[in-house]
Amino acid sequence: MRVLSGIQPSGKLHIGNFFGAMRQHLQLQAEHNCFYFIADYHALTSNPTPAEVAGHTLDVAMDYIALGLDTEKTIFWRQSDVPEVTELTWLLSCVTPMGLLQRCTSYKDKVAQGLSPNHGLFAYPVLQAADILIYNSDLVPVGADQKQHIEVTRDIAIRFNNAYSKVFTVPKEHIIKSVAVVPGIDGRKMSKSYGNTIEIFEPEVSVRKKIMKIVTDSTPVEDPKDPDKCNVFALLKLVASPEELAEWESKYRNGGMGYGQAKKRLAELMIDYFKPFRQKRTKLENNIDYVKEVLAKGAERAKAVARETLEKARQAVGLKK
Ligand code: ADP
Ligand code: TRP
Q1: Mean pLDDT of 288-299
Q2: Which numbered atom of ligand 2 lies nearest the CA of 137?
Q3: Are residue 278 and residue 291 in the same domain, yes or no?
Q4: One domain, residues 200 and 176
Q5: 161 with 236, same domain?
Q6: This model's pTM is above 0.70
Q7: Mean pLDDT, the chain, as a whole number?
Q8: Which residues form the domain of 218?
Q9: Is the pLDDT at 178 greater than 80, yes or no?
Q10: How far is the centre of ligand 1, averaged over its atoms, from the C-alpha of 192 (Å)?
């Protein structure tokens, strides 16, 4: 089974990204043949600076490798190193009805928020379809927010296969059963766009400070507290053992425990959880050439597959050599 997913390079990754998506990507490596790439072409739709494009791409690469990406087994590359995908995007664009893209909610939401869209943003799902189809992917693990893009991909693949010949594997979506939404320190969904994140590899002192600042209600120490309504408990669930979590749950319900106590323990557990990977992250920062080499090797392997599929698609539409 070929598994493929793309990650947008939009800065250093946070614990919401890790528990919501990355951890599952990394787990899938054990059983499947995985293709993971850094979607830098997609990132251009929000017009980052050139320095941001390059810097964020390397940050995401280092985060993934430090956290356990298997650089031998898994094919890991930078999307723009295989430009064949943009040619396939064009071939797919020509069988994609405008209406299909006009219905995409992630596009509509951005426009509704007042963003003046560029053509890249509108065509974004076609590039995503090309990413998936060019590598003959069977399974695409993504968050629920991407479900519609995978449906669009299936639709485009079927249209192309019917209009010409059966060039593409029609992929299945694999909605990551995430640990629900990871809250940020202000209690909203943890997201870069809200400035409420805890980055996976930020300095330990800063992790501690942020955790101590997590928003909680004003229930007095003596009173019982509802763990299901507490942001600190939501994060404890991610890193505490089931036994320890059960103990915290009864401390909450019995009263006599202050949130500060739970926060201190949460900080310890969170820091311990990522500790084994920190050293590797630092090593990678001091050896960027190695990171670039991993991406270059991945691109070579990805390109071989992409070229073959693109050639079939070119032949199918009549662009014969
Ligand atoms: P951000 O909102 O910080 O820009 P992205 O949209 O780039 O994050 O998210 C990348 C992936 O990480 C998504 O597929 C999403 O499923 C997952 N993710 C992001 N934030 C969270 C969160 N707070 N809780 C759970 N999963 C998340
Ligand atoms: N759009 C995806 C996101 O924002 C990233 C992405 C680009 C992707 N191409 C892909 C995901 C192909 C899966 C498959 O998260």
Answers
A1: 98
A2: 14
A3: no
A4: no
A5: no
A6: yes
A7: 95
A8: 192-282
A9: no
A10: 9
**Dist. CA 275 → ligand 2 center (Å):** 28
The arithmetic mean of pLDDT across residues 307-318, rounded, is: 98
| 41-45, 119-123, 180-184, 201-205: the lowest-pLDDT one | 180-184
207 and 152 in one domain?
no
Ligand 2 centre and the CA of 267: distance in Å? Answer: 31
For residues 307 and 217, state if they share a domain.
no
Is residue 176 over pLDDT 80? no
| 187, part of any domain | no
Q: Tell me: pLDDT of 193 over 90.
A: no
Q: Which of 110, 147, 209, 251 is catalytic?
A: 110
Task: Give me the number of domains the chain comprises.
Answer: 2
SS3 labels along the chain: CEEEEEECCCCCCEHHHHHHHHHHHHHHCCCCEEEEEECHHHHHHHCCCHHHHHHHHHHHHHHHHHCCCCCCCCEEEEHHHCCHHHHHHHHHHCCCCHHHHHCCHHHHHHHHCCCCCCHHHHHHHHHHHHHHHHCCCCEEEECHHHHHHHHHHHHHHHHHHHHCCCCCCCCEEEECCCCCCCECCCCCECCHHHCCCCECCCCHHHHHHHHHCCCCCCCCCCCCCCHHHCHHHHHHHHHCCHHHHHHHHHHHHHCCCCHHHHHHHHHHHHHHHHHHHHHHHHHHHCCHHHHHHHHHHHHHHHHHHHHHHHHHHHHHHCCCC
Residue with the smallest CA separation from ligand 2 atom 11 is 6
Catalytic residue among 147, 192, 209, 312: 192
